[in-house]
Description:
By secondary structure, the protein is an alpha/beta fold.
Amino acid sequence: MRIGILTGGGDCPGLNAVVRGIVSSKRSDMEIFGFMRGWNGPLEADYIPLNTEDVEGIHILGGTILGTSRTNPFKKEEDTKKLFENLEKLKIDAIIAIGGDDTLSVAAKLSSFHFPVVGVPKTIDNDVSNTDYTFGFHTAVNVGADAIDRLHSTAKSHNRVFYVEIMGREAGWIALEAGLASGAHLVLIPEYPMTLDEIMSVVDKRMERGGYCIVAVAEGFKPTEFEDEINKHKAVDAFGHVQLGGIAELLTEITKERRSYETRSVVLGHLLRGGTPTAFDRNLGTRYGVHAMELIKKQDYGRMVALSGNDIVSVPIEYGVATKKLVPYDYYKLCTLFFG
Ligand code: F6P
């Protein structure tokens, strides 16, 4: 049996642990083709064979040994044709797709054509539905919390306001959990917009009480007054997503216009997803990889592995991509106790 595996979308700490988990649990009659750069691999018939010795020790490494891209093979008809031709030519019996909503939506589509597929949910944003956590999120929260921990001393010394921009497109999980852990004085997330006046009043309260203020802001947050997301780069990817960025800078400028506080912005950006995964993410990735291979062995296709409590389970792949898992109000409300 020949199994193709690929990693697609933004890279994420823990991807290599999944790859190692899959390869290490293969049967001796199984061959693994590691497709390079996401769905671009099967499109270009670009792959490397993977054996146990190739994946030894990779679970501690960040990034992905297979490379990644945001390729959508269903965007153009000629690409879709090429995808099916190559899968046949290479005699691929099944694919394990490791990715977020875009990569998994391609996997779901492939599965709807009765091609055997298993999905593994990945994203630092933690917004894939029907799984308690995606790997990479834990690492990103730790990096974010560590960065804010460090900003406290410099913000305090200078009596400054800091806006810290944190990845999170439609869901503010990373900003919320990193902000809560590190004692940010306000957390702004896409799910719960605030007006500029409301933001300024929390900043004022905090400046009066503590003499400095740290605001964690998810990149997908926009103040109530704004219609569109803040997209200073003006770029759009193959799945139609705009490249977000600029909210911390914008809020810094607005604060300077309205108040006399010294104000700065820090963009954590890709620092959140670079580097080695935490032990939690290594182990979650490993467990996902081994479980994905179990599904292949049972020929239980069209499924996505998922975490439920402390158990690895599986759900229909479409369940992961149908809706985004957003921060529930109760959790956000708990965090508001520490605002100001
Ligand atoms: O993988 C999701 C994500 O981390 C989002 O939070 C962010 O908007 C996006 O990736 C940025 O990706 P890139 O700049 O690498 O295309």
